Amino acid sequence: METVFGIVVDGAAYGMILFIISVGLSVTLGLMRVVNLAHGAFAMVAGYIASYAAQGLGLPYAAALVGAVLVTVVATLPMERLLYRRIYGSANELSQVLLTIGLTFVIVAGINYLFGPTLKRIPLPDALLGTVSIGPKSIPAHRAFVIGMGAATILGLWWLLERTDFGIKLRAAVDDPNMAAALGIRTERLYMATFALGTGLAAMGGVLGAELLPLEPYYAIRYIVLFLAVVAVGGAGSIFGSAAAALALGIVDTAGKYLIPNFGEFFFYAALILILFRWPHGFFHGRGA
Amino acid sequence: MTKTVRGALLGAVFVTASGAALCSGTAWAATIKVGVIAPFSGPFATAGQTFKQGIEIYQAQHGKTVGGDTIEFVYKDLDQANPAQSKALAQELIVKEKVGYLAGFFFTPDALAVAPLIDEANIPCVIFNAATSAITEKSPRYVRTSFTLWQNTVPLAEHMAKQGIKKVVTAVSDYGPGIDGETAFKQTFEKGGGQVVDSIRMPLKSTDFAPFMQRIKDSGAEAIYAFLPAGPTTLGFAKAFSDTGLKAAGIKFFGPGDITQEPDLPALGDAAVGITTTFNYSQAHDSDMNRQLLAKAKELFGSSDLVTFSTVGAYDGTHVIYKMVEATGGKPDGLKAVEAVKGMAWESPRGPLKIDPNSRHVTQTIYLRATERKDGKLQNTEIASFPDQPDYGYKGGK
Asked: Where is the Leucine-binding protein domain (chain B) (predicted)?
């Protein structure tokens, strides 16, 4: 029993990190119909900025986190105007893939040149260093913090998309851009804001998840498969779907590693295949937020 | 008629003379190239960097020439374990760069992949790291100056059994050296009266170690034997061990010294304190040669913090290559070069070394170390030594 509990807690912690990074991708993919393969690269850039802010400039963790998210969003907004705006809409899938994978390569090379190929760390504050006991199981305080941040992200996003003017306008613009524009909604600004939201979530995940997905220049390519898997299983654009998918995959992966370690990633991908067989469009496709 | 004969004779004399001059010219002023294949980018870039530093320190101490031949190192980047790419790079080095020696190799699969090439081209290959025992069996032209998992694990397992430890879990990365470590540990430890209660093989790509920690906890072991390749994975494992409370629960952590290699110590922080390892080199090794090596590193690179086992692997590997060049007079003959260094013994910054004529692997002293904080800096303090340890794993540990 204790073991099962341990697996669930560890799996949830791993799943939450996947969730925080992937939900941004789900937002851009589901709401703006952009397959943004550079999503992992944005998360990585934020991680490097936070690492530099904390180690090079000596900023505290919280400031490094907020700073990294802001800098990443500001730095990627011109890309939205110059590049992404041209490829919105589901008719442009091939150009989306080509553009964003190209962008990823450029960012990987740039990071490699600027920061070198070695692993970078974001030093944690003392408050996040110890362990926290949940029942009979003790988990690193940092993971408990990540689980909390993940839960806060779920609620915040749900509120933003379901309960605010912005959310209503955004959903209108997604359903029928022409009609929304005719009603006086400034769809371009809306898309820009959503892009910023997606990038900001990627950035936050990149910084928070750096302990589990270590920062190195190939991060952008190495982990994008994981993020895409979560979005595919969860259903593009669905926040609860992404959360459910990330938790399910996280727990399955953890249980697999616990029970039969030498099967490696087998269980993660087996779960992915089985879920997509049953729900080809993901858990929550086209329903709710 | 006579004129033509005389002309031809003169011509012949001239050609022979100039040919001889050219030949003798190459004999005393050739450049011998050594191709080094190692990771210089990507997550394991530090390994390549330490190889390069080891070579440069040796060259700075001993000059760049051997008997008039200049030794030049050509570096090729191979960012991760990728045998196909390793083979392609080796071929490029041999055919285009015309290297006389191959060296480097951080990962076992990369070292194994070049066996057919070095046999066909008859050039020696000096391995600076790759630690699976079986490698040197695959070609008579391999020589290795690092260590093997068997070499480090056998004395460790004997020590643990003597300490009265009874129940141990092994946790290793699921690839050649990891499995070597597991087998070596199990055999030696069970012979010593201990019991291995669980053997965990972790995927090489793992970044999340929490599930394995849970398994270790559930097994009820008193201690773990862990091996992962030096670098980011090890860091994650050691941190998880302390973060998930296993360290606080009093489970003892043993392993080969890759776990606490010097460049990783600052990042590991206090998670590393109390880990007991066996290894062939510690930066804190007490000898004049080691102090000279560290001083040179400081002079050349501004800091000696990176100096670790792969640095001395490359340093001693370079020494072996110099001796090979000396023995063959700079002529390309791989088998003769390897033959010349068989049984060679010398003093290295890590202690006395000897190349075993059968396994072509170094027999060396293995040290038992405890990681501790000294003057605010983490170091591997040597607390005991086991001299003349051969590669127990040569020919499958028989």
From this structure: 31-371
CATH 1.10.405 fits A2-118+142-278, yes or no: no
The predicted complex's ipTM stands at 0.74
Cβ–Cβ below 8 Å for A131 and B248: yes
Between CA B37 and CA B106 the distance in angstroms is: 8
Query: Which 8-state DSSP code applies to residue A53?
Result: I
Interface probe for B, chosen from A4, A138, A222, A223 (most Cβ of B below 10 Å), is A138
A255 in reach of chain B (CB within 8 A):
yes
Number of domains in chain B: 2
Torsion of CA B91, B97, B102, B104, to 10 degrees: -100
In sequence order, the β-bridge partners of residue B361 are B144
CA–CA distance, A2 with B218 (Å, rounded to integer) = 9
E-assigned strands of chain B?
31-38, 65-66, 69-77, 101-104, 125-127, 142-144, 167-173, 195-202, 223-227, 252-256, 276-279, 345-348, 351-355, 362-374, 377-389
Which residue range(s) make up the domain with B225? 150-279+366-397
Whether residue B108 is found in the same domain as residue B207: no
CB contact under 8 A, B211 and A258: yes
CATH of the domain at B161: 3.40.50.2300
Alpha carbon distance A78, B35 (integer Å):
45
Identify all chain B residues contacting A261, using CB atoms and an 8 Å cutoff.
174, 200-203, 211-212, 215
Whole-prediction pTM value? Answer: 0.78
Alpha-carbon gap, residue B208 to A212, rounded angstroms: 6
Q: Cβ of B207 and A213 within 8 Å? A: yes
| pLDDT single digits (tens) B226-265 | 998 776 778 788 888 888 888 888 899 999 988 888 888 8
